[in-house]
UniProtKB/TrEMBL annotation, chain A:
Organism: Candida albicans (strain SC5314 / ATCC MYA-2876) (Yeast)
InterPro entries listed in its UniProt record: Translin (IPR033956), Translin_C (IPR016069), Translin_fam (IPR002848), Translin_sf (IPR036081)
GO molecular function: RNA binding; sequence-specific DNA binding; single-stranded DNA binding
Official protein name in the record: Translin
GO BP terms: RNA metabolic process
Lineage start: Eukaryota, Fungi, Dikarya, Ascomycota, Saccharomycotina
Any single Gene Ontology cellular-component annotation: nucleus
From TrEMBL, chain B:
Keyword Lipid biosynthesis applies: no
Name this protein carries in UniProt: Translin
GO molecular function: RNA binding; RNA endonuclease activity; sequence-specific DNA binding
One GO cellular component, as annotated: cytoplasm
Keyword hit for Cytoplasm: yes
Pfam families for the chain: Translin (PF01997)
Domain of life: Eukaryota
Organism expressing this protein natively: Candida albicans (strain SC5314 / ATCC MYA-2876) (Yeast)
Family recorded in the similarity comment: Belongs to the translin family.
Assigned keywords, A-Z: Cytoplasm, Nucleus
Gene3D superfamilies to which the protein is assigned, alphabetical: Translin, domain 1 (1.20.58.190), Translin, domain 2 (1.20.58.200)
Localization annotation: Cytoplasm; Nucleus
């Protein structure tokens, strides 16, 4: 075989792969742009105190059908691209994980908003016939996104991202309450104990897994630090008798 | 708590264990492919009779046939293991390209390589593959390859390793030198590698950030893939220099004899 011909073929293949990469990046970029409004809403909620959440949730909460349509639309576009499967796989996984993250984070904030209407606060961990659960289950996800098979890896990764969001929400709320303190004790401080219990239960759940040295394990390692931070916040608030509204997660 | 765990984490654990078992299965298959490819290369380096070599190669091909068929079957659900499979595939390419080069003094065509792998995956008779590599007899017609886990990029990386084997062959040729034949063979090998090296260098001048990840080309400087490619090119260059030294030694020795 002619070496020149072989290397000409190599150059052709490189050009094709670079073009494919551009095409796939374009779709990824479009997906990110489409998801941005949902992430902006989540950022708004992070800055909204628990007892003020309910109106914004009703107005801006993500609709399962809409998230499904976005997910389905982009996975269909992705399937239509003439790319190598290994190129598509990474992006497809990202679509799944991001869609799940949007859904479970919306669920979390919905459950918190519902819970803080009442005193004492009582929130179920998973959905019961009486009340919506704080953690959307893989079965619920599969139903909304119409997945043939539950992608547990993507679900668990999204769950770990939710924990980051929960911690951020806790610190932001406590800071906002402290800065705005008027002397009267606020039920919003209870978010710390609620979130601490949620994260603690999630941590117990993750310990049931046989995590290998992969991306899931690396992301899980940050969970313990998040858990410690929440415990410290709860301790500080309790010490100052700032948690006045009882909260339970069951 | 038990409700929560049984709803989410027990099924997740079961699912992840299945994936982990699949992954370990693929890794074992890849190790076998790497192992038997290396055995094949060792056989090619030995001075043994043609019949004996044919017998050994056929044995290796039969094992490779079984392992490759299993990977082909499992690949659709284990695409994330493409990187692991690439390592085994490169070793396989090294084996096939070296075998073909040793008896034909040419680069094995990529499309022909794929046909041979398809024969192995189909579980067909391996004899035509051996005959093709060693005696240039034709392969069966109507073999249409459909292999998802091998790409042209893997082939480019595998050829790097083949150059190392050619260098080793040159060194062992020279140490048994008994006359013009070996010198000529070493000289021809040197010229082939020189042309090949020039082509690789031209490629890097055109795509300075060339890299390969999971069988896909990219052009991004200082990426892990680019560093890996550059190192392989440096190893290739040092192989060339070793052969140059060998040639100089032979030439000087010959003059001393005269």
């Amino acid at each position: 075989m002619s070496l020149e011909q072989f290397f000409t073929d190599i150059k052709d293949e490189i050009e094709k792969d670079l073009n494919r990469k551009s095409a796939i990046q374009e779709i990824e970029h479009q997906f990110d742009s489409t998801i941005i409004p949902y992430k902006s809403t989540i950022n708004e909620w992070i800055n909204c105190s628990p007892n003020q959440l309910i109106s914004s949730i009703i107005e801006k909460g993500a609709n399962g059908q809409t998230v499904y349509e976005i997910y389905h639309s982009f996975t269909t576009k992705l399937a239509g691209l003439e790319c190598k499967q290994s190129q598509k796989e990474r992006v497809h996984n990202k679509f799944v994980e991001d869609s799940i993250y949007v859904l479970i984070t919306n669920r979390y904030f919905l459950a918190i908003a519902n819970g803080f209407i009442n005193d004492p606060i009582d929130i179920p961990m998973v959905t019961t016939p009486q009340d919506v659960g704080v953690i959307m289950t893989p079965t619920e996800i599969a139903e909304i996104l119409r997945l043939d098979k539950i992608d547990y890896q993507a679900y668990l990764l999204a769950l770990l991202r939710l924990v980051d969001t929960i911690v951020e929400y806790t610190t932001t709320t406590v800071i906002n309450e402290s800065v705005a303190s008027t002397g009267s004790k606020s039920s919003n401080y209870s978010i710390a104990i609620i979130n601490s219990k949620i994260v603690s239960k999630l941590q117990n759940g993750f310990q049931l897994l046989d995590l290998k040295n992969d991306v899931l394990r690396k992301r899980y390692d940050s969970l313990k630090y998040n858990s410690q931070r929440l415990n410290k916040i709860v301790y500080d608030l309790s010490l100052r008798n700032l948690i006045t509204t009882k909260g339970e997660v069951n | 708590m038990s409700d929560f765990a049984s709803t989410i984490f027990i099924p997740a654990r079961d699912n992840l264990r299945i994936k982990q078992d699949d992954r370990e299965g693929v890794i074992r298959l890849c190790r076998d492919i790497t192992s038997y490819s290396k055995k094949g290369i060792f056989s090619l380096h030995r001075t043994i009779s043609e019949d004996e070599l044919i017998k050994e190669l056929a044995g290796y091909f039969n094992v490779l046939s079984d392992r490759l068929a299993k990977i082909q079957k499992n690949y659709p659900e284990n695409m994330h293991l493409r990187g692991t499979i690439s390592g085994a595939v490169e070793e396989l390419i090294e084996f096939f390209t070296f075998a073909f080069y040793k008896y034909n003094f040419q680069l094995l065509r990529y499309d022909v390589f794929l046909k041979m792998i398809q024969i192995l995956i189909n579980g067909d008779d391996v004899e035509p593959i051996v005959q093709y590599l060693i005696k240039s007899e034709s392969l069966p017609e109507a073999i249409e390859p459909h292999i998802d886990f091998i790409d042209l990029a893997d082939y480019l990386m595998g050829i790097f390793d083949c150059t190392g084997e050619i260098m080793r062959m040159c060194i062992s040729q020279s140490s048994q030198s008994t006359g013009d034949f070996e010198l000529k063979a070493t000289l021809n090998n040197y010229r082939f590698l020189q042309k090949l090296y020039d082509q690789y260098v031209l490629l890097t001048q055109h795509y300075s950030g060339i890299s390969i990840n999971r069988g896909v080309f990219d052009d991004s400087a200082n990426s892990r893939g680019n560093i890996s490619f550059t190192k392989k090119l440096q190893v290739f260059e040092s192989s060339l220099k070793k052969i140059e030294s060998t040639l100089l030694d032979i030439l000087v020795s010959d003059k001393e004899i005269i």
